[in-house]
Amino acid sequence: MDAVTRKTFSSLTGKPAAKQAASVRQTLDAITPVGANRSLRIVRPITSRLETLAMLSAVVTAAATSAGLIALRERTPGPPALLSWQLRSFDGLRAADQAIHSALLPAAEEITWYNNDTGGWITIAGAQEKLLPPFYRDAFWKTNGEVHWQLILPGYHEAHGVGREEPADHIATPATQPTPNAVSEGTLGQGATVYYGTGGRVPGQGAYLLVIGHAHAGVMWTNQSTIWLHPDPNAPYPGVVKPEALVSKGWRQVVPYNGASEVERVKGTGNGR
Predict the structure, then answer these.
(1) What pLDDT score does 157 carry?
(2) What count of other Cβ atoms lies within 10 Å of the Cβ of residue 166?
(3) pTM of this prediction?
(4) Among residues 210, 234, 260, 201, which one has the least CA distance to residue 79?
(5) Which of 210, 206, 245, 249 has the alpha carbon at shortest distance from 228?
(6) Between the CA atoms of 32, 37, 40 and 41, what dihedral angle is there, to the nearest 10 degrees?
(7) The predicted structure's pLDDT at residue 70
(8) Cα 207 to the chain's mean position, in Å?
């Protein structure tokens, strides 16, 4: 056994090369038939260093690619950011204002469906018959400031029912109103119907506008309602109820965010969805 072989045996087993060689020869003598070739051949182990490096490189590349795709992935849009002239209904209102707003939301739907079915609008007196808050004068009305409500139909300067009480079943339509001004004569049936609330007695309470914009084209119609708040409970009727006109007179639109919308606004909407 040459010097290289001895050194290899010594490094593998930690024993002197001579003893290793003798042990190997004894093993070969025991298992090798007589007359067979008994030459000793050293087979070195195949290293896995390159394969390990290649595997680690592949894992790092896959992780980096996944992180990049997640970062570039378009997130689901959340609730739109409020403008300077808007308020969140969830946390931007005082208790009485929030209560009135919460009552106006279903009232707007009821009024819209009523208009779709009859072509008229629920008057303030009619709301008493229908027990429709926040117009109906019950405990809720008293607790939240005893607000005085008026109905203004499109094309008319005068609030409907001011200074008089209509029968409870009265339906407000353009035919029941005084002659409209010249500008609005050609646009009857289009524009905005407004429920205007003032005179709230709760400290810090504001004034309210429920603006139901509508337009008729043949047998088709569209309705969209918005709710506005003024910090002055006795704010005068603005006359023009277009957003830019209302904003210029200190009115602010109340955006009906709910709890789920607030969670999305605060925590975001990505969440892997």
Answers:
(1) 43
(2) 16
(3) 0.60
(4) 260
(5) 210
(6) -110
(7) 77
(8) 27
DSSP line for 23-91 = HHHHHHHHHSPTTS-------PPPP-HHHHHHHHHHHHHHHHHHHHHHHHSPPPP-SPPPPTTEEETTT
| Of 74, 68, 116, residue with least CA distance to 212 | 116
Q: Which stretches of the chain score pLDDT less than 70? A: 1-21, 24-25, 28-49, 73-80, 155-190, 215-222, 258-273
The pLDDT, as a whole number, for residue 55 is 83
Q: What confidence score (pLDDT) does residue 69 get? A: 79
Q: Detail the DSSP E strand segments found in 73-190.
A: 86-88, 121-122, 148-152, 171-172
Query: Contact, 192 vs 216, CB < 8 A?
Result: no
State how far the alpha carbon of 118 is from the alpha carbons of 28, 57, 170, in Å. Answer: 110, 73, 12
Beta carbons within 8 Å of 206's beta carbon, 6+ residues apart: 97, 200, 229, 230, 231, 232, 233, 235
What is the 8-class DSSP label of residue 235?
P
d(CA 112, CA 213): 10
Separation between Cα atoms, residue 108 and residue 132, nearest integer Å: 10
DSSP, residue by residue, 178-222: PPPPGGGGGGTT-EEEEEEEE---STT--EEEEEEEEEEETTEEE
Query: pLDDT value at position 177?
Result: 47
At 111, phi and psi to the nearest 5?
A: -65, -40
